Amino acid sequence: MLSPKKINTFTMLKLPSAYFTGVRVKKISENSCTTTVKHRWINQNPFNSMFWAVQGMAAELSTGALVMAFIKENDANVSMLVANNKATFSKKAKGRITFTCNDGAAIKSAIEKTISNGEGQTCWMKATGTDAAGDIVSVFEFEWTVKRKG
C-alpha cells in the first residue's frame, strides 16, 4: 500500500496546486483514505471560507489515492481518469477540513475486473468533508474510470 508520505511527495511534484494550498493525505488503508486541508489565505474565497475547488482537490485525492494504490499493488498497466463528479455544500468550510473516502473495496473490484477482462470499468466514489466539530461541510462524488492500457 502507498504511504501518506509517498503520496504527499507525489502531490508536491505532480499536483503542485493541491500541495501549495495545503492538501495532504493523513491516512490510507485498503478500504479508506483520509485527506485534510486547512483554511488559509492561499485557499480562501472572498467570503472568508475555503474555496470550493480546494475542497474538491482534497476530496478527489482521498478517492484517487485509493485508485493509485490498487493499481500499484497489482503492478497493473491501468489508466485512471475522472469522468464525472458531483458536489454538495452544506456549511462554510473554515478551519481544518477532513475528507474521508471509504470506497476502497469498490475500486479494488473495478480494477480487478479491468485487469482480468480488459474492459474499462467505472466506479463512483464518495468523499465526505467534515470540520473540527464533526459537521459535514461538503460531499463530493467522483466517477472514476479505469482501463487496461495496451
Task: Provide an overview of this structure.
This protein is an alpha+beta fold and 150 residues long. The protein has a single domain (4-148), classed as Hotdog Thioesterase (Thiol Ester Dehydrase, Chain A). The chain contains 4 helices and 6 strands. The protein has helices at residues 4-14, 16-20, 52-73, 104-117; strands at residues 24-28, 33-38, 78-89, 96-101, 121-130, 136-148. The protein has a 6-stranded antiparallel sheet with strand order 1-2-4-5-6-3. Helix 3 (52-73) crosses helix 4. The radius of gyration is 15 Å and the shape is elongated.
Structure summary:
The protein has helices at residues 4-14, 16-20, 52-73, 104-117, and strands spanning 24-28, 33-38, 78-89, 96-101, 121-130, 136-148. The chain is of the alpha+beta class.
CATH level 1 class label: Alpha Beta
Could you name the CATH homologous superfamily?
Hotdog Thioesterase
The largest sheet is: 6 strands, antiparallel
Distance from first to last alpha carbon: 25 Å
* Number of helices in the DSSP assignment: 4
The ordered H/E elements are HHEEHEEHEE
Mean pLDDT reading:
97
* Count of DSSP strands: 6
- The coarse silhouette is elongated
The strand line-up of the biggest sheet is: 1-2-4-5-6-3
Q: How many domain regions?
A: 1
Instruction: Pick out the low-confidence regions.
Output: none
- What would you call the structural class? alpha+beta
